[in-house]
Amino acid sequence: MTRDPTLERWLDVLGTQPATTGTPDPSLPTSAEVWDRLRLLAVPEADRTAVLTTLPDPIRTPTLWQALLHCHRALFTDARVNWPNAPSSLGAAGRYFYVHLYVLALPLTLEWQHRYGIPADVTRATLTDLGAKLVTHRRAHGTGGLDRQTWLVRHFRGTLHRLGRLQFERTTLDATACGGKAEESGGPEDGAPVLDVHIPADGPLPPAHCDTSFTTARDFYAHHFPATPYPHATCHSWLLDTQLAAHLPTDANILRFQHRFHLFGDRPVCDDDILEFVFGTPPGTADLTRLPQHSTLQRAIVAQLRSGGHWRLGHGWADLGVPD
């Protein structure tokens, strides 16, 4: 067999996480089991057959199967993972490699969710983000695959849950990464437990829906994770760029979302983030002359960039109040 240095480097990066007694290795699921898991994860029908037919197994593709086992062990034991995309030489098997990982990981994730009493509808709403990321990949690249594998780690580890319109992630505030201290404006201290707010790109942000999500989150985490209080939420997003106020109506949903937060820290450029979220373009690929200009937001984004300006990421904190 011809050596593939790119493949070898990728396998080296994935590592050789040793087996542990606390995290059992998965067995190869049957076709029916895979199909059921793909439905639960909302994997689009256009991708399901390809995911099934490219699933590695210990006999036919032992190298990829071992790589999946290493990633599965790391998923549930490593504090930090940063898995690179598989080399293009693997074709569809590489583009779907991390879908295979999460298909194998699903039983342990569901067991964990059940142990903490997480309602089934919350679990499903959370994990269907995998299917959404497959839709995003096909729209951006014109082919099936997943390239948001590291983002989904938090879903399958149980640190992130979708509660209505918004996602909330259990984490701690890193003031250094934010370039400033929230506590200077009455917010959480550096290292304090916080709920990091994420905004799925699947619709508008009606204030009433956001109100419900915040109220639900406050009570949800107090009930299911009572050992750690979460009095504050944080958000790190282009949605908190104060420049948007010059382009949008004063009652725009985005501006009303901004007003929930006290801003702090630095404001790094995030042009790629806003282009990817609004237009679905992969980082560094947007042709400003060809982007749709149907909404006020779309027109504002493009106009600012074409004039030589930039969009910036904002950091903010909000008080969640006392659980009911």
From TrEMBL:
N-acyltransferase N-terminal domain location, by residue? 36-158
Domain GNAT-like C-terminal: start-end pairs: 160-317
Highest taxon listed in the record's lineage: Bacteria
Record protein name field: DUF5596 domain-containing protein
Species for this entry: Streptomyces coryli
Q: According to the entry, what is the taxonomic lineage of the organism? A: Bacteria, Bacillati, Actinomycetota, Actinomycetes, Kitasatosporales
